[in-house]
Amino acid sequence: MRKAFATLAALCVSVFVVGTSEYLISGLLPQVGADLKVSVGAAGQAVTVYALGVVAGGPIVATLTARMPRKGLALGLMLLFAAGSAICALASSYELLLVGRLVSSFSHAAFLAQALVMATGVVPPEKTGTAISAVASGFTVATLLGVPLGALLGESAGWRTPFAVLTALALAGVVLLAAVLPKQPAPATRLRDEIRVVTRRPVLLAIATTAVGFSGVAVVFTYIAPLLTRVSGFSSTAVSGLLLTYGAGSFFGNLLAGRLTDKSMSATVRGVFGGLTGVLVLIPFAAVWQPSAVAAVLVLGLLATATIAPLQGLILRHAGDAPTLAVSANVSAFNLGAAAGSAIGGLIVSAGALRWTGLAGAVLSLAGLALTYLGATRAPLPAMRRASSASPDGLWEGGRITP
User: Fold this and answer.
1) Which of 117, 93, 95 is CA-nearest to residue 328?
2) Tens-digit pLDDT profile for residues 292-303
3) Quick one: average pLDDT of 87-114?
4) Phi, psi (deg, nearest 5) at residue 188
5) Beta carbons within 10 angstroms of residue 69's beta carbon
6) Distance from chain centroid for Cα 196
7) Are 11 and 115 in contact (CB under 8 A)?
8) What pLDDT, in 10s, does the model give residues 223-251?
9) How many angstroms separate the first and last alpha carbons of the chain?
10) Closest Cα partner for 258 from 369, 136, 125, 394?
Protein backbone atom coordinates (compact mmCIF):
# COMPACT_ATOMS: atom_id res chain seq x y z
CA MET A 1 0.00 0.00 0.00
CA ARG A 2 2.88 2.37 0.81
CA LYS A 3 4.49 1.68 -2.56
CA ALA A 4 1.21 2.47 -4.31
CA PHE A 5 0.84 5.72 -2.36
CA ALA A 6 4.42 6.73 -3.17
CA THR A 7 3.86 6.01 -6.86
CA LEU A 8 0.62 8.01 -6.98
CA ALA A 9 2.22 10.90 -5.10
CA ALA A 10 5.22 11.01 -7.45
CA LEU A 11 2.97 10.93 -10.52
CA CYS A 12 0.74 13.64 -9.05
CA VAL A 13 3.71 15.93 -8.39
CA SER A 14 5.05 15.36 -11.91
CA VAL A 15 1.64 16.08 -13.43
CA PHE A 16 1.53 19.30 -11.37
CA VAL A 17 4.79 20.43 -12.98
CA VAL A 18 3.64 19.59 -16.50
CA GLY A 19 0.19 21.09 -15.89
CA THR A 20 1.60 24.39 -14.64
CA SER A 21 3.42 24.94 -17.93
CA GLU A 22 0.33 24.95 -20.15
CA TYR A 23 -1.21 28.24 -18.98
CA LEU A 24 1.74 29.74 -17.10
CA ILE A 25 2.65 32.04 -19.97
CA SER A 26 -0.88 33.48 -20.07
CA GLY A 27 -0.05 35.65 -17.07
CA LEU A 28 3.31 36.73 -18.53
CA LEU A 29 2.27 37.92 -21.99
CA PRO A 30 3.06 41.65 -21.53
CA GLN A 31 6.58 40.89 -20.23
CA VAL A 32 7.21 38.32 -22.98
CA GLY A 33 6.02 40.69 -25.68
CA ALA A 34 8.13 43.59 -24.42
CA ASP A 35 11.27 41.47 -24.08
CA LEU A 36 11.02 39.65 -27.41
CA LYS A 37 9.71 42.69 -29.32
CA VAL A 38 6.35 41.23 -30.35
CA SER A 39 2.77 42.24 -29.64
CA VAL A 40 0.82 40.76 -26.75
CA GLY A 41 -1.41 39.03 -29.29
CA ALA A 42 1.59 37.40 -30.94
CA ALA A 43 2.97 36.36 -27.55
CA GLY A 44 -0.38 34.73 -26.86
CA GLN A 45 0.25 32.36 -29.74
CA ALA A 46 2.65 30.55 -27.40
CA VAL A 47 -0.49 29.24 -25.68
CA THR A 48 -2.00 28.18 -29.01
CA VAL A 49 1.19 26.42 -30.13
CA TYR A 50 1.30 24.47 -26.87
CA ALA A 51 -2.35 23.44 -27.19
CA LEU A 52 -1.89 22.32 -30.79
CA GLY A 53 1.23 20.40 -29.78
CA VAL A 54 -0.73 18.57 -27.10
CA VAL A 55 -3.59 17.72 -29.47
CA ALA A 56 -1.38 16.48 -32.31
CA GLY A 57 1.74 15.42 -30.44
CA GLY A 58 0.12 13.21 -27.82
CA PRO A 59 -1.18 10.50 -30.16
CA ILE A 60 1.95 10.72 -32.34
CA VAL A 61 4.34 10.25 -29.42
CA ALA A 62 2.15 7.49 -27.96
CA THR A 63 2.20 5.69 -31.32
CA LEU A 64 5.96 5.96 -31.76
CA THR A 65 6.70 4.78 -28.21
CA ALA A 66 4.08 2.04 -27.91
CA ARG A 67 6.65 -0.73 -27.37
CA MET A 68 8.95 1.09 -24.93
CA PRO A 69 9.20 0.05 -21.24
CA ARG A 70 6.79 2.22 -19.28
CA LYS A 71 9.15 3.49 -16.59
CA GLY A 72 11.85 4.47 -19.06
CA LEU A 73 9.27 6.20 -21.23
CA ALA A 74 7.90 8.22 -18.31
CA LEU A 75 11.41 9.39 -17.40
CA GLY A 76 12.18 10.22 -21.03
CA LEU A 77 9.00 12.28 -21.40
CA MET A 78 9.81 14.28 -18.26
CA LEU A 79 13.31 14.94 -19.63
CA LEU A 80 11.74 16.10 -22.90
CA PHE A 81 9.52 18.46 -20.94
CA ALA A 82 12.52 19.78 -19.01
CA ALA A 83 14.35 20.41 -22.29
CA GLY A 84 11.41 22.38 -23.67
CA SER A 85 11.16 24.48 -20.50
CA ALA A 86 14.90 25.18 -20.62
CA ILE A 87 14.61 26.36 -24.24
CA CYS A 88 11.83 28.75 -23.17
CA ALA A 89 13.90 30.08 -20.27
CA LEU A 90 16.89 30.75 -22.56
CA ALA A 91 14.94 31.83 -25.67
CA SER A 92 16.62 34.79 -27.35
CA SER A 93 13.85 35.18 -29.92
CA TYR A 94 10.12 34.76 -30.29
CA GLU A 95 10.61 31.86 -32.70
CA LEU A 96 12.83 30.00 -30.23
CA LEU A 97 10.21 30.49 -27.51
CA LEU A 98 7.64 28.82 -29.75
CA VAL A 99 10.06 25.93 -30.38
CA GLY A 100 10.46 25.45 -26.63
CA ARG A 101 6.72 25.49 -26.10
CA LEU A 102 6.24 22.93 -28.86
CA VAL A 103 8.91 20.61 -27.43
CA SER A 104 7.30 20.75 -23.98
CA SER A 105 3.85 20.14 -25.40
CA PHE A 106 4.90 16.92 -27.10
CA SER A 107 5.50 15.35 -23.70
CA HIS A 108 2.25 16.66 -22.17
CA ALA A 109 -0.46 14.27 -23.39
CA ALA A 110 1.84 11.27 -23.65
CA PHE A 111 3.15 11.73 -20.10
CA LEU A 112 -0.33 12.19 -18.65
CA ALA A 113 -1.47 9.06 -20.48
CA GLN A 114 1.45 7.12 -19.03
CA ALA A 115 0.78 8.55 -15.57
CA LEU A 116 -2.87 7.47 -15.67
CA VAL A 117 -2.10 3.98 -16.98
CA MET A 118 0.69 3.43 -14.45
CA ALA A 119 -1.46 4.78 -11.60
CA THR A 120 -4.26 2.32 -12.29
CA GLY A 121 -1.70 -0.47 -12.47
CA VAL A 122 -0.62 -0.09 -8.82
CA VAL A 123 -4.12 -0.16 -7.29
CA PRO A 124 -6.88 -2.80 -7.23
CA PRO A 125 -9.39 -2.57 -10.12
CA GLU A 126 -12.09 -1.26 -7.79
CA LYS A 127 -9.90 1.77 -6.99
CA THR A 128 -9.31 2.86 -10.59
CA GLY A 129 -11.35 6.06 -10.25
CA THR A 130 -9.57 7.09 -7.07
CA ALA A 131 -6.16 6.53 -8.68
CA ILE A 132 -7.10 8.57 -11.75
CA SER A 133 -8.44 11.46 -9.66
CA ALA A 134 -5.34 11.40 -7.43
CA VAL A 135 -3.04 11.84 -10.43
CA ALA A 136 -5.36 14.35 -12.13
CA SER A 137 -5.44 16.45 -8.95
CA GLY A 138 -1.94 17.55 -9.97
CA PHE A 139 -3.56 19.53 -12.77
CA THR A 140 -6.18 21.11 -10.54
CA VAL A 141 -3.48 22.20 -8.08
CA ALA A 142 -1.46 23.55 -11.01
CA THR A 143 -4.43 25.71 -12.00
CA LEU A 144 -5.15 26.71 -8.41
CA LEU A 145 -1.58 27.49 -7.27
CA GLY A 146 1.06 26.76 -9.90
CA VAL A 147 -0.11 29.21 -12.58
CA PRO A 148 -0.82 32.22 -10.31
CA LEU A 149 2.38 31.69 -8.29
CA GLY A 150 4.36 31.38 -11.51
CA ALA A 151 2.83 34.62 -12.77
CA LEU A 152 3.76 36.41 -9.52
CA LEU A 153 7.31 35.08 -9.77
CA GLY A 154 7.51 36.26 -13.37
CA GLU A 155 6.37 39.75 -12.45
CA SER A 156 9.01 40.11 -9.73
CA ALA A 157 11.94 38.21 -11.25
CA GLY A 158 11.30 38.29 -14.99
CA TRP A 159 9.27 36.00 -17.23
CA ARG A 160 12.17 33.59 -17.81
CA THR A 161 12.47 32.71 -14.12
CA PRO A 162 9.27 30.59 -13.89
CA PHE A 163 10.45 28.51 -16.86
CA ALA A 164 13.83 28.02 -15.21
CA VAL A 165 12.06 26.89 -12.04
CA LEU A 166 9.89 24.49 -14.07
CA THR A 167 13.04 23.04 -15.63
CA ALA A 168 14.53 22.40 -12.19
CA LEU A 169 11.27 20.93 -10.90
CA ALA A 170 11.00 18.65 -13.95
CA LEU A 171 14.51 17.35 -13.36
CA ALA A 172 13.67 16.78 -9.70
CA GLY A 173 10.58 14.93 -10.89
CA VAL A 174 12.76 12.66 -13.01
CA VAL A 175 14.79 11.74 -9.93
CA LEU A 176 11.64 11.15 -7.88
CA LEU A 177 10.02 8.98 -10.54
CA ALA A 178 13.21 6.98 -11.02
CA ALA A 179 13.20 6.23 -7.30
CA VAL A 180 9.58 5.17 -6.82
CA LEU A 181 8.11 3.95 -10.11
CA PRO A 182 7.97 0.17 -10.35
CA LYS A 183 9.83 -1.42 -13.23
CA GLN A 184 7.49 -2.54 -15.95
CA PRO A 185 8.41 -4.43 -19.12
CA ALA A 186 7.55 -3.09 -22.53
CA PRO A 187 3.90 -3.76 -23.41
CA ALA A 188 3.29 -6.92 -25.37
CA THR A 189 0.69 -5.16 -27.50
CA ARG A 190 1.66 -4.15 -31.00
CA LEU A 191 1.10 -0.78 -32.62
CA ARG A 192 -1.76 -2.16 -34.69
CA ASP A 193 -3.41 -3.34 -31.46
CA GLU A 194 -3.30 0.21 -30.11
CA ILE A 195 -4.71 1.59 -33.37
CA ARG A 196 -7.43 -1.04 -33.47
CA VAL A 197 -8.46 -0.18 -29.92
CA VAL A 198 -8.61 3.57 -30.50
CA THR A 199 -10.82 3.10 -33.58
CA ARG A 200 -13.44 1.01 -31.77
CA ARG A 201 -16.84 2.64 -31.60
CA PRO A 202 -17.08 2.80 -27.77
CA VAL A 203 -13.61 4.35 -27.51
CA LEU A 204 -14.31 6.91 -30.24
CA LEU A 205 -17.60 7.81 -28.57
CA ALA A 206 -15.86 8.27 -25.21
CA ILE A 207 -13.23 10.53 -26.81
CA ALA A 208 -15.95 12.52 -28.59
CA THR A 209 -17.80 12.84 -25.28
CA THR A 210 -14.68 14.32 -23.73
CA ALA A 211 -14.14 16.87 -26.50
CA VAL A 212 -17.77 17.93 -26.87
CA GLY A 213 -18.67 17.87 -23.18
CA PHE A 214 -15.58 19.70 -21.92
CA SER A 215 -15.96 22.40 -24.58
CA GLY A 216 -19.15 23.40 -22.75
CA VAL A 217 -17.09 24.29 -19.68
CA ALA A 218 -14.52 26.19 -21.75
CA VAL A 219 -17.19 28.37 -23.42
CA VAL A 220 -17.96 29.91 -20.03
CA PHE A 221 -14.72 29.60 -18.07
CA THR A 222 -12.55 31.28 -20.72
CA TYR A 223 -14.61 34.44 -20.33
CA ILE A 224 -15.65 34.10 -16.70
CA ALA A 225 -13.58 37.08 -15.52
CA PRO A 226 -15.29 39.63 -17.80
CA LEU A 227 -18.64 38.00 -17.02
CA LEU A 228 -18.13 38.53 -13.31
CA THR A 229 -16.89 42.11 -13.69
CA ARG A 230 -19.23 43.42 -16.39
CA VAL A 231 -22.42 41.50 -15.60
CA SER A 232 -22.11 40.66 -11.90
CA GLY A 233 -20.32 43.87 -10.95
CA PHE A 234 -17.44 42.32 -9.00
CA SER A 235 -14.12 44.13 -8.69
CA SER A 236 -10.99 42.62 -10.23
CA THR A 237 -9.74 41.73 -6.75
CA ALA A 238 -12.99 39.93 -5.95
CA VAL A 239 -12.80 38.03 -9.23
CA SER A 240 -9.33 36.77 -8.27
CA GLY A 241 -10.82 35.43 -5.04
CA LEU A 242 -13.69 33.81 -6.91
CA LEU A 243 -11.25 32.11 -9.29
CA LEU A 244 -9.46 30.68 -6.27
CA THR A 245 -12.85 29.43 -5.08
CA TYR A 246 -13.39 27.88 -8.51
CA GLY A 247 -9.99 26.20 -8.32
CA ALA A 248 -10.65 24.84 -4.84
CA GLY A 249 -14.00 23.50 -6.02
CA SER A 250 -12.30 21.82 -8.98
CA PHE A 251 -9.80 20.13 -6.68
CA PHE A 252 -12.43 18.66 -4.38
CA GLY A 253 -14.84 17.88 -7.23
CA ASN A 254 -12.16 15.85 -8.99
CA LEU A 255 -11.39 13.82 -5.86
CA LEU A 256 -15.07 13.22 -5.12
CA ALA A 257 -15.71 12.12 -8.70
CA GLY A 258 -12.88 9.61 -8.39
CA ARG A 259 -14.57 7.94 -5.44
CA LEU A 260 -17.94 7.96 -7.18
CA THR A 261 -16.34 6.51 -10.32
CA ASP A 262 -15.23 3.51 -8.28
CA LYS A 263 -18.90 2.86 -7.52
CA SER A 264 -20.31 3.53 -11.01
CA MET A 265 -18.55 5.10 -13.97
CA SER A 266 -21.66 5.49 -16.08
CA ALA A 267 -23.77 7.06 -13.33
CA THR A 268 -20.95 9.43 -12.40
CA VAL A 269 -20.26 10.69 -15.91
CA ARG A 270 -23.96 11.15 -16.66
CA GLY A 271 -24.57 12.82 -13.31
CA VAL A 272 -21.69 15.24 -13.90
CA PHE A 273 -22.82 16.17 -17.41
CA GLY A 274 -26.40 16.53 -16.22
CA GLY A 275 -25.25 18.80 -13.41
CA LEU A 276 -23.05 20.83 -15.76
CA THR A 277 -25.95 21.31 -18.17
CA GLY A 278 -28.12 22.58 -15.33
CA VAL A 279 -25.61 25.03 -13.85
CA LEU A 280 -24.60 26.35 -17.29
CA VAL A 281 -28.24 27.07 -18.11
CA LEU A 282 -28.58 28.99 -14.85
CA ILE A 283 -25.37 31.03 -15.13
CA PRO A 284 -26.83 33.80 -17.37
CA PHE A 285 -29.52 34.37 -14.77
CA ALA A 286 -27.36 33.79 -11.69
CA ALA A 287 -24.73 36.25 -12.94
CA VAL A 288 -26.98 39.29 -12.43
CA TRP A 289 -27.06 38.83 -8.61
CA GLN A 290 -23.77 38.55 -6.79
CA PRO A 291 -24.71 35.88 -4.18
CA SER A 292 -26.10 33.57 -6.86
CA ALA A 293 -23.09 34.29 -9.07
CA VAL A 294 -20.77 33.12 -6.27
CA ALA A 295 -22.80 29.93 -5.86
CA ALA A 296 -22.76 29.29 -9.62
CA VAL A 297 -18.97 29.70 -9.81
CA LEU A 298 -18.49 27.27 -6.91
CA VAL A 299 -20.79 24.62 -8.42
CA LEU A 300 -19.19 25.04 -11.85
CA GLY A 301 -15.79 24.49 -10.26
CA LEU A 302 -16.99 21.35 -8.48
CA LEU A 303 -18.30 19.85 -11.73
CA ALA A 304 -15.76 21.10 -14.30
CA THR A 305 -12.98 18.63 -13.48
CA ALA A 306 -15.33 15.93 -12.19
CA THR A 307 -15.49 14.66 -15.78
CA ILE A 308 -11.83 13.55 -15.78
CA ALA A 309 -11.99 10.39 -13.65
CA PRO A 310 -15.11 8.79 -15.16
CA LEU A 311 -14.19 9.62 -18.77
CA GLN A 312 -10.63 8.35 -18.44
CA GLY A 313 -11.95 5.34 -16.54
CA LEU A 314 -14.31 4.54 -19.40
CA ILE A 315 -11.46 4.80 -21.89
CA LEU A 316 -9.32 2.42 -19.84
CA ARG A 317 -12.17 -0.04 -19.47
CA HIS A 318 -12.98 -0.06 -23.17
CA ALA A 319 -9.31 -0.12 -24.24
CA GLY A 320 -8.48 -3.40 -22.50
CA ASP A 321 -4.80 -4.37 -22.78
CA ALA A 322 -3.85 -1.62 -25.27
CA PRO A 323 -4.83 1.63 -23.54
CA THR A 324 -1.89 3.98 -24.16
CA LEU A 325 -2.89 5.51 -27.49
CA ALA A 326 -6.56 5.72 -26.49
CA VAL A 327 -5.80 7.49 -23.20
CA SER A 328 -3.40 9.86 -24.95
CA ALA A 329 -6.06 10.66 -27.55
CA ASN A 330 -8.54 11.35 -24.76
CA VAL A 331 -6.09 13.75 -23.09
CA SER A 332 -5.77 15.52 -26.43
CA ALA A 333 -9.57 15.62 -26.63
CA PHE A 334 -9.70 17.64 -23.39
CA ASN A 335 -7.40 20.22 -24.97
CA LEU A 336 -9.33 20.16 -28.23
CA GLY A 337 -12.53 20.76 -26.28
CA ALA A 338 -10.94 23.66 -24.42
CA ALA A 339 -9.79 25.23 -27.70
CA ALA A 340 -13.15 24.74 -29.40
CA GLY A 341 -15.08 26.07 -26.41
CA SER A 342 -12.85 29.13 -26.19
CA ALA A 343 -13.38 29.84 -29.89
CA ILE A 344 -17.17 29.48 -29.62
CA GLY A 345 -17.22 31.66 -26.54
CA GLY A 346 -15.15 34.27 -28.35
CA LEU A 347 -17.69 34.46 -31.15
CA ILE A 348 -20.51 34.90 -28.62
CA VAL A 349 -18.63 37.62 -26.74
CA SER A 350 -17.77 39.40 -30.02
CA ALA A 351 -21.48 39.43 -30.83
CA GLY A 352 -22.13 41.31 -27.58
CA ALA A 353 -23.76 38.34 -25.80
CA LEU A 354 -21.25 37.81 -22.98
CA ARG A 355 -24.00 37.09 -20.46
CA TRP A 356 -25.38 34.19 -22.53
CA THR A 357 -22.26 32.06 -22.97
CA GLY A 358 -23.74 29.66 -20.42
CA LEU A 359 -26.54 28.66 -22.78
CA ALA A 360 -24.06 27.63 -25.48
CA GLY A 361 -22.08 25.74 -22.86
CA ALA A 362 -25.23 23.96 -21.72
CA VAL A 363 -25.99 22.81 -25.27
CA LEU A 364 -22.50 21.34 -25.59
CA SER A 365 -22.66 19.63 -22.19
CA LEU A 366 -26.07 18.22 -23.09
CA ALA A 367 -24.55 16.89 -26.32
CA GLY A 368 -21.85 15.21 -24.24
CA LEU A 369 -24.54 13.64 -22.06
CA ALA A 370 -26.35 12.39 -25.16
CA LEU A 371 -23.15 10.78 -26.44
CA THR A 372 -22.89 8.70 -23.26
CA TYR A 373 -26.33 7.24 -23.98
CA LEU A 374 -25.49 6.75 -27.65
CA GLY A 375 -22.52 4.67 -26.60
CA ALA A 376 -24.84 2.53 -24.51
CA THR A 377 -27.85 2.13 -26.75
CA ARG A 378 -25.84 1.29 -29.86
CA ALA A 379 -23.81 -1.44 -28.15
CA PRO A 380 -24.27 -5.02 -29.40
CA LEU A 381 -26.99 -6.74 -27.43
CA PRO A 382 -24.99 -9.85 -26.39
CA ALA A 383 -22.19 -7.69 -25.01
CA MET A 384 -24.69 -5.62 -23.06
CA ARG A 385 -26.22 -8.74 -21.54
CA ARG A 386 -22.82 -10.07 -20.48
CA ALA A 387 -21.87 -6.76 -18.91
CA SER A 388 -25.16 -6.26 -17.10
CA SER A 389 -24.93 -9.69 -15.55
CA ALA A 390 -21.27 -9.24 -14.54
CA SER A 391 -21.17 -5.61 -13.47
CA PRO A 392 -23.66 -3.34 -11.69
CA ASP A 393 -22.26 -0.36 -13.56
CA GLY A 394 -24.72 -0.48 -16.40
CA LEU A 395 -24.85 0.19 -20.09
CA TRP A 396 -21.61 2.05 -20.75
CA GLU A 397 -19.66 -1.06 -19.82
CA GLY A 398 -21.95 -3.02 -22.12
CA GLY A 399 -20.40 -1.14 -25.01
CA ARG A 400 -17.05 -2.81 -24.58
CA ILE A 401 -15.89 -4.92 -27.49
CA THR A 402 -13.25 -7.48 -26.69
CA PRO A 403 -10.31 -8.09 -29.07
Assistant:
1) 117
2) 999 999 999 899
3) 91
4) -80, -15
5) 15
6) 24
7) yes
8) 888 899 899 999 877 887 888 888 888 88
9) 32
10) 136
Question: What is the per-residue DSSP string for 150-218?
Answer: HHHHHHHH-THHHHHHHHHHHHHHHHHHHHHSPP-PPPS--HHHHHHHHTSHHHHHHHHHHHHHHHHHH
Query: Taking the alpha carbons of 82, 74, 253, 338 in that order, is the dihedral positive or negative?
Result: positive
Q: What percent of the chain has pLDDT over 90?
A: 32
- Can you state the angle between helices 45-64 and 2-24, rounded to 10 degrees? 140
> How far is it, in rounded angstroms, from Cα 377 to Cα 260?
23
Burial of 3 (0-12, 13-18, 19+ CB in 10 A): exposed
CA 376 – CA 365 distance, rounded (Å):
17
CB 285: neighbour CB atoms within 10 A? 13
3-state secondary structure 340-399: HHHHHHHHHHHCCCHHHHHHHHHHHHHHHHHHHHHHHHCCCHHHHHHHHHHCCCCHHHHC
Q: ∠ at Cα 225 (224, 231), nearest 5°? A: 80
Amino acid residing at 377: T
Q: Nearest-CA neighbor of 51 among 386, 372, 398, 341?
A: 341
Pick from 146, 116, 154: nearest CA to 17: 146
pLDDT in tens, 258-273: 999 888 888 898 999 9
Identify the band that residue 11 occupies on the pLDDT scale cut at 50, 70 and 90. Answer: very high
Q: Which residues contact 241 (CB under 8 A, 6 or more apart)?
A: none
Residue 211: C-alpha distances to residues 80, 104, 250, 403 (Å) = 26, 22, 18, 25
Sign, CA dihedral 389-194-82-74, equals positive
Neighbour tally for 175: CB within 10 Å: 12
Report, in angstroms and rounded to the nearest whole number, the Rg of the chain calculated over CA atoms: 20
Please spell the DSSP secondary structure of 285-330, one letter per residue: HHTTSHHHHHHHHHHHHHHHGGGHHHHHHHHHHHHTT--HHHHHHH
Reported as half-sphere exposure (CB side, CA atoms, 13 A), residue 308 has a value of 32
pLDDT above 60 for 397: no
Min mean pLDDT across 31-35, 38-42, 65-69, 398-402 is at 398-402
Query: Taking phi first (over 0 means left), then psi (-120 to 50 degrees means alpha), and beta for anything else, what does residue 234 get?
Result: beta
Buried b (16+ CB within 10 A) or exposed e, 208-231: bbbbbbbbbbbbbbbbbeebbeeb
- The predicted-structure confidence for 131-161, as pLDDT tens digits, reads as follows 888 888 888 888 778 877 887 888 888 999 9
